[in-house]
Design goal:
Elements: H1 6-17, H2 23-35, H3 42-54, E1 59-63, H4 69-78, E2 83-88, H5 91-103, E3 110-114, H6 117-123, E4 128-133, H7 140-147, E5 151-160, H8 182-194, E6 198-203, E7 209-214
Helix pairs in contact: 1-3, 3-4, 7-8
The structure holds S-adenosylmethionine.
């Protein structure tokens, strides 16, 4: 759920679309509406691209890629020589990601791995400029544990849905069963805040984007 009034959300989404006209992106958004698939949307997508470009990211690890919508923005940011490693448990998502991102001219920047995101992460060596987390929320604490030492100094850990429709701040929001994972989100967020190697900010775009820059 977007926390901002829908008019403000629409304004931000429209603004994020300026200079970004791509029929493939339109189709990915249409698919999300049709299937009620939780993509980050254009305002957060542009924010991810901005963050990645700002630190000159060339190697991005994405935990929870769906059919490649957020990866589209990271792939733009890393440029022709860069690499976005995508992960998802659903092979169908991988196939759709390839279809969309190939048509967008971005597929050669993608290494898409099907399976558990954290297992795929563990199977890849080295440090990353960005680790982006958007898996099932009960996995957030483990995702942070896996990422915290593998983000290079000067790199970023970024995590979506960190306001969780306001539940993290005690708002009572439907459906109540979604509240089961709120402690996992707040625990992860607190662990990031407590790590003095990182400077963080929780940006209240859409459902909340936690951005943490590794400074030491
Ligand atoms: C919120 S969607 C990702 C949306 C994507 N980041 C975007 O904005 O386009 C979460 C995705 O992560 C996948 N997922 C969730 N938990 C996972 C896990 N532990 N390992 C692998 N994939 C996972 C789901 O299959 C789903 O496609």
């Amino acid at each position: 759920m977007a926390l901002l009034p829908s008019e403000v959300d629409d304004y931000l989404t429209a603004l994020a679309g300026v200079g970004l006209s791509d029929v493939v992106l339109d189709e990915m958004e249409a698919r999300a509406r049709e299937l009620r698939f939780p993509i980050v949307g254009r305002a957060v997508g542009r924010h991810l691209e901005l963050q990645a470009r700002a630190i000159g990211a060339q190697r991005v690890m994405e935990l929870g890629s769906g059919y490649g919508y957020s990866a589209y923005f990271f792939a733009r940011a890393v440029g022709e020589e860069g690499r976005v490693i995508c992960t998802d448990g659903d092979p169908d998502n991988a196939a759709h990601a390839e279809g969309y991102l190939r048509r967008a001219g971005l597929w050669d920047r993608i290494d898409y791995r099907v399976g558990d995101a954290l297992e795929s992460f563990a199977a890849v060596e080295g440090e990353f400029d960005v680790v982006y987390c958007d898996i099932d929320k009960d996995g957030y604490p483990d995702a942070w544990e896996a990422a915290r030492d593998r983000v290079r100094v000067g790199g970023m850990f970024i995590c979506d849905n960190t306001l969780w429709s306001g539940r993290v701040a005690g708002l009572v929001v439907e459906p109540p069963e979604y509240d089961k994972v709120t402690p996992a989100i707040t625990a992860m967020t607190r662990a990031v805040a407590d790590d003095d190697r990182y400077v963080h900010s929780l940006v209240p775009l859409r459902d909340g984007v936690l951005v943490a820059l590794r400074v030491a």
